Automatic annotation (TrEMBL):
The name this protein goes by in its record: Protein meaA
Span list, region Disordered: 1-23
UniProt keyword NAD, yes or no: no
Keywords: Cobalamin, Cobalt, Isomerase, Metal-binding
Cofactor: adenosylcob(III)alamin
Gene Ontology MF terms: cobalamin binding; metal ion binding; methylmalonyl-CoA mutase activity
Any single Pfam family the record assigns to this protein: MM_CoA_mutase
PANTHER family referenced in this protein's UniProt entry, alphabetically: COENZYME B12-DEPENDENT MUTASE (PTHR48101:SF3), METHYLMALONYL-COA MUTASE, MITOCHONDRIAL-RELATED (PTHR48101)
Family per record: Belongs to the methylmalonyl-CoA mutase family.
Start-end of Polar residues biased regions: 1-13
Domain B12-binding span(s) in chain numbering: 540-669
Biological source species: Pannonibacter tanglangensis
Superkingdom field: Bacteria
Amino acid sequence: MTDSANKGASAGSSEAPRRRDQPWIFRTYAGHSTAAESNKLYRTNLAKGQTGLSIAFDLPTQTGYDPDHMLARGEVGKVGVPVSHLGDMRTLFNEIPLEKMNTSMTINATAPWLLALYVAAADEQGADRKLLAGTTQNDIIKEYLSRGTYVFPPAPSLRLTGDVIAWTYGEMPKWNPMNVCSYHLQEAGATPVQELSFALATAVAILDGMKASGAIPEAEFPQAVGRISFFVNAGMRFITELCKMRAFTELWDEICRDRYGITDERYRRFRYGVQVNSLGLTEPQPENNVYRILIEMLAVVLSKNARARAVQLPAWNEALGLPRPFDQQWSLRMQQILAYETDLLEFDDIFDGSSVITAKVEELKAEARAELARIDAMGGAVAAVESSYMKQKLVESNTRRLAAIESGEQIVVGVNRWTESEPSPLATGEDGGILTVPEHVEDEAIERIKAWRAARDGVAVEAAIAALKAAAREGRNIMEPSIAAAKAGVTTGEWGAALREVFGEYRAPTGVGRAARDDAGDLDAVRASVEAVSRTLGRRLKFLVGKPGLDGHSNGAEQIAVRARDCGMEVVYEGIRLTPAQIVNAALEEGVHVIGLSILSGSHLALVRDVMERLRAAGIGDVPVVVGGIIPDEDARALKAMGVAAVYTPKDFQLTDIMADVVRIVGERGAEAA
């Protein structure tokens, strides 16, 4: 041993060993194409040191449709794994012992059903339900505000959430049945104060409903509250995000103590998991995203008193498309290095006593309390959704965020500053740096579900569906009938159809009509162009903004609609989840001059092709179509070959420039027609 090594050993041995805290649960959010391929990915990730699973389901599964439903076209296996019946769930967890696994499922409107399938699969494995650990996200309120994978109206949706909470309390005591999710609020533009207040208002709405229902005995209510967890976002404003998390812990403790009279500190703990901000990942210079992800993770692990219980990190290339296994491994290694190679877990909270941190936390808490009081005065979170108050505020704050990026006030490296760049070797190669889901996956899923239906006991299925509907109509807990339906072979689409029949469907307010905005940049030139083109057309330029398919991420479409309106165009925007036929019909009825399609789920080729064919069949194939989304260059070329006039991706952040381009396209098309 060398002298320097001896000195190092001596120096190290002079310190008393510190007790290390247990690290958080390491997860990656994953699922794609088929249950078999996703299972292979999960087992590989677990072998690499991942300690929990976070399941991404595809959009048909999230919204209660089978792969052969008209609305599922182009969406199967794109943003997650399709799970259409017990056979798929069985395959998804093949060779993964559920009794020993901590599983998070990002599922909301259909949460009771996917939990029922999970329980049925666990029963087949011989697992003890009381040992099953994990989380169903199950926050339907934020779906009306951001992700858009709601199905039913708010009242029955909240009832289903209550059913899951009440059932798991007795049957699966280690399960987190409700994961209040502010993550997608930040994705939709929420400020830290809105994140705090809107998420806490949601939790209050759920707990007030549970308390009033009497489904859980009064004496045991604190224990039920202790199973509520949160799922949050962490952005790039590191100090503010860290303080936001400390504010969350203190406000939740306050609400549990003062509103619900919970005296045991264990049941007042703010237990949360986190995925750091995917919205801030950039398509230009995507290698910079590695640093962004690390900085965002630090905000939720550095402060011991507000440390996340589970962390899942996006991959550096998620602004480009679906990450490959290597990309997910890279993000997993980031967590492991921080947890095991540093001394982070050996110390108490390093921010206690900081006057700067304390002042910022108190400021956030004061503003959040004021917003919570406003929401409470409206009648609570559900009323604030139905009146469009929350949605309107999110659209406004997102508008301000984008305006700051456009103006350069908010610097985004590689996007609006220092844009000169060397080509990234990470994004080259035959795969383009991302994983793609083959087109044949959907056709094969359709064939599999037809075979599943043909092989099951039809009489047992009909009886299970009838029992499910009866429970829904009579107000009984939906969980046991759902588990029975899962075991009988009922499909996701059949479960969804049965409850749609009982509860009906719902279209949430868009928040676009009344959203106010601060003026961003100089719109005068575009307004003048709109006026000139409108005179040539003989009427006001009319722009249809459409969201075909099941992609509910409406933030981009909303901002395009607001900016088009502010530039003087007449805007038609009817919200999410439209079929290509409905979009073409609206274009005919409204007499629009241009159609803008927003698709972020990767289903752009199939859906745009359908729209273009229907436009030509309807005799309005001359109406220009522009498309926005996460679209690889190769797909952009394919869309233009179909006749699409322009394709916009996240690198096209200047909305006013997009508006100018749209007006130019309409003007040129009008001149050609003349």
